[in-house]
Amino acid sequence: MPSVLLAGANGFVTVTILQALLNQGYNVVGTVRSESKIHYLHDKFSKFVDEEMLTFAVVQDITVPGAFDEVLKANKFDSVVHTSSPYHWNVTDARRGMLDPAIKGATGILESVRMLSPTVKRVVITAMFGNIMNIPKGDWPGKVYTEEDWNTITFDEQALSHPSMAYVSGKEGAERAAWDFVKETKPHFTIMFGPPEQELTSFNTSTADIYDVFNGTSEPRFTTWAWVDVQDLAQAHVLAIDAPAAANQRYLVTTGNYSAQAIADYIWEHYPERAVAKRDLGITYKHGFDTMLRDTLKKLEELEAEGK
């Protein structure tokens, strides 16, 4: 069966990609940053480990030149899926903690594959919606983003001003560097970019953003409104490995545009006991969004009829 190198196998998106690859019959070597990260994956996918479809390798620092050389030399791969990029706000050095792992990690693995893995035919790299979003424009009503768009913030302009900007700049820098790599070196493989269920010793940033609204400790704080279920995103990665049309392409994978308020609205509708006013005041919610909107529109019709 085809063999895949999956970089960053314990990540939020990557664990679901790993499950999808194994379900499709791929043999997978998953890299993690430390031996301790293997235990959870070994237990979760013990069936595939026992069947020798899944093995692991430790790559401690993906920013080091040749970080993936050892695992590439020890295995014969048909494809590579690279999703590794830190996504959290607990950094004191944005360049070292965000930018370097994203950019050097992507270019480093591409160079190692070019030099050491002649059997690799496709490299799939995960980007993010921020790579195409015009952040200064904000919501930008009426704008329809496509794969032709690029983020307009320059690398030095705001990259180090806040961890979120460093994350976006790192992801965009990694993608631009990868396209430059293909253009300049013309490697024996093609690349495919896509946007965007791991061990929960703590919530990853995306999950924490939702949970903090769910438990009432935060208002919605999302800055990006393009959403995709991680299972669909994982399937996109698997399909991209063999799809001929995906060679050297860039795809925006999203189920649509949803506001951050939609998360809060869903929680209020389906988990009304979570609402802060109910907890503090003991109020019972009897009028949902549909009722509120129905009554409001009815009143507006009445006012229209009265000529007001």
Automatic annotation (TrEMBL):
PANTHER family: NAD DEPENDENT EPIMERASE/DEHYDRATASE, NAD-DEPENDENT EPIMERASE_DEHYDRATASE DOMAIN-CONTAINING PROTEIN. Residues 4-248 form the NAD-dependent epimerase/dehydratase domain. Transmembrane segments: none annotated. InterPro entries: Epimerase_deHydtase (IPR001509), NAD(P)-bd_dom_sf (IPR036291), NAD(P)_dehydrat-like (IPR050425). GO terms for molecular function: oxidoreductase activity, acting on the CH-OH group of donors, NAD or NADP as acceptor. It comes from Tulasnella calospora MUT 4182. Gene3D superfamilies: NAD(P)-binding Rossmann-like Domain. Keywords: Oxidoreductase. Pfam families: Epimerase (PF01370). It comes from the Eukaryota. Belongs to the NAD(P)-dependent epimerase/dehydratase family. Dihydroflavonol-4-reductase subfamily. This is NAD-dependent epimerase/dehydratase domain-containing protein.
